[in-house]
Design brief:
Residues 34-127 form the 2Fe-2S ferredoxin-type domain. This is Ferredoxin--NAD(+) reductase. GO terms for molecular function: ferredoxin-NAD+ reductase activity; iron-sulfur cluster binding. Residues 130-236 form the FAD-binding FR-type domain. The structure is a single chain. This protein has 368 residues and is α/β, with parallel strands linked by helices. It is built from 8 helices and 19 strands. The protein folds into 3 domains: 35-126, Beta-grasp domain (Ubiquitin-like (UB roll)); 130-230, Elongation Factor Tu (Ef-tu), domain 3; 241-366, Rossmann fold (3-Layer(aba) Sandwich). Helices cover 25% and strands 30% of the residues. The strands form 4 sheets. The chain has a 6-stranded antiparallel β-sheet. The chain has a 6-stranded parallel β-sheet with strand order 17-16-15-14-18-19, sandwiched between helices. Helix 7 packs parallel to helix 8 (342-354). The radius of gyration is 24 Å and the shape is globular. The N and C termini lie far apart (53 Å). The relative contact order is 0.10.
């Protein structure tokens, strides 16, 4: 019986080795697509890249950066491009993010679509102005028990010119939790006029590749590569009232917008609702109160959903959506800026719609 078992194990092991060898051979022969050409925007730019890799990675390596909040894991759906020629069939991993209308336009998810033959793609012209920057970590400070503020200083002579509310992609190098470098998207918290620095607010996510690296490994003086800026989340020019809603590290882009409004002397009526569970989850309260003093038409409304007895909280209590519902009085003449988890965004959009804020006047970054 034992001899039979050992023979069976040996046979299974030999079969496994044989299959692995076949996979290596297949990858080196069938999977060797050679050099392929990527034509961008009717030949405005042409790239020669190694075939067989995801389009997102191939473009990044050539200095063409496509926004991707998840770093190419296929979970955010942001890295869409139009593949004009050479697309082939859709992959199952693309379909959850592609609508029927987008299929008709040949929109693909660039982190999943692999470049195996020559392709022609179309991307927004503004992405050609996205740059890679080499930075140094100037400061790291704790904002809460699970949120760190990271200030990056650009290389001398470099400047970055984002719109308030936009984001960058942060490159995490290979380390013990990641076998390769990856990108993650983070909103810029600093105002645009501070064009030699980028301030980020990064919340620790359990088992998160980037957030673990930032919270447990990153040190002041370390070098960090970023690229950007990206995004359509920025203050629109109008006379409408402004409603800002955020939670956790969603504070970052709202802070940037508010500081920019102060610098530019924008005096529109503005209410900023910030939701947290308990007092230990609140941060930058002094900065927000200073903005209230400097901006007479601005009101900051923090709210706790589960204040602890020791918090001795005298402010608003309840889910942030309930607070918004109670306090917003003129929805039809308002526009809203939201940043937080997908669940929070969806709940806020529902409430804002009930308050008659027009859907086209609701702007958000839904970072998961």
């Amino acid at each position: 019986m034992v001899l039979t078992l050992l023979i069976s194990i040996a046979i299974i092991s030999l079969i496994s080795v044989f299959l692995a060898l076949l996979m290596v051979i297949a990858d080196a022969t069938i999977g060797n697509y050679g050099i392929v050409k990527i034509s961008i925007n009717n030949g405005t730019k042409e790239l020669q890249v190694k075939g067989g890799q995801p389009l997102l990675k191939a473009l990044n390596q050539e200095g063409v950066f496509i926004p991707s909040a998840c770093g190419g894991r296929g979970s955010c759906g942001l890295c869409k491009v139009r593949v004009v020629e050479g697309g082939g069939e859709y992959l199952p991993t693309e379909l959850p993010f592609i609508s029927e209308e987008e299929k008709k336009q040949q929109i693909r998810l660039s982190c999943q679509f692999k470049v195996k033959t020559d392709v022609s793609i179309a991307i927004p012209e503004e992405l050609f102005s996205v740059r890679e920057f080499n930075t140094v970590v100037e400061r790291i400070r704790d904002l809460t028990h699970d949120i760190k503020e990271v200030t990056l200083r650009l290389k001398e002579g470099d400047t970055i010119t984002p719109k308030a509310g936009q984001y960058i992609q942060f490159e995490v190098p290979e380390y013990e939790n990641s076998e390769e470098s990856v990108y993650r998207a983070y909103s810029i918290a600093s105002p645009p006029d501070d064009n030699t620095r980028v301030e980020l607010e990064i919340r620790l996510v359990p088992n998160g590749i980037c957030t673990t690296y930032v919270h447990k490994f990153l040190k002041e003086g370390d070098k960090v590569t970023i690229n950007g800026p990206y995004g359509d989340f920025y203050l629109r020019t109008s006379e409408r009232n402004i409603i800002c809603i955020a939670g956790g590290s969603g504070m970052a882009p709202i802070k940037s917008i508010l500081l920019d409004m102060k610098d530019k002397g924008i005096k529109r009526n503005t209410m900023y609702f910030f939701g947290a569970r308990s007092k230990r989850d609140l941060f930058l309260l002094d900065e927000m109160h200073e903005l209230q003093q400097a901006m007479p038409n601005f009101k900051f409304v923090p709210a706790l959903s589960e204040p602890a007895p020791e918090d001795k909280w005298e402010g608003e209590i309840g889910l942030i959506t309930d607070v918004v519902r109670r306090m917003v009085k003129d929805g039809p003449n308002s526009e809203a800026y939201l940043c937080g988890s997908p669940g929070m965004i969806n709940a806020c959009m529902k409430v804002l719609t009930e308050l008659n804020v027009a859907p086209e006047n609701i702007f958000y970054d839904k970072f998961s």
